[in-house]
Amino acid sequence: MNYICIGKIVNTHGIKGELRIISDFPYKKEIYSQGNHLYVGREKIKFMLNTYRHHKIFDMVTFKGINDINDVIKYKGEFIYFDRDEVKLPGLIDSDYIGLSVYNGNAYIGDVTSIMKSKPNDILVVEKENSRNLIPNIPVFIKSIDLDKKCIYIESIEGLINEDWCAYFISKYVYRNITG
């Protein structure tokens, strides 16, 4: 099982077992489809989704066979998951990037170790031994992703990759200032 966290149950709604979930997961339409399974809490208790609706900033769900607030109140504050193997998503999610090898042409840059969130775009943190590179996850730099080979192919610009940043700095700035 490949559980992916999609949000947190923040409260109940009404008395018929409806739950309020706060989530920024991008593929809600695919996940919150009637009949899909969701998993709740550390124990990953399995439930079948009965209904879904969006209300204000919340995702509102009910589970099959649960029609009472007393049956779901105990899940308030728990995280909610789906099994990545059960649902086909139209695109990639953050966990798909972790562990992929990054190449600039034939040059190995490193492996994606984490993803930094920023307003304009996500940034892939790529590490290799003592080197760390931050690559914006935008089509200008990310040219292709091959999940079968577990590779990301990028097109770099000057200064994006820290191959030898010290030599780069010296050649561009220090030497220029000395020679005039």
Fill in the keyword field for this structure.
alpha+beta; six-stranded antiparallel β-barrel; 4 helices
Provide a short characterization of the protein structure:
With 180 residues, the protein is of the alpha+beta class. 15% of the residues lie in helices and 43% in strands. The strands form two sheets. A six-stranded antiparallel barrel has the order 1-2-5-4-3-6. Strands 10-9-8-7-12-11 form a six-stranded mixed β-sheet, with no helix packed on it.
Provide structural commentary.
The protein is an alpha+beta fold and 180 residues long. 15% of the residues lie in helices and 43% in strands. The protein is built from four helices and twelve strands. Strands 1-2-5-4-3-6 form a six-stranded antiparallel β-barrel. Strands 10-9-8-7-12-11 form a six-stranded mixed sheet, with no helix packed on it. Strand 1 (3-13) and strand 2 (18-22) form a beta hairpin.
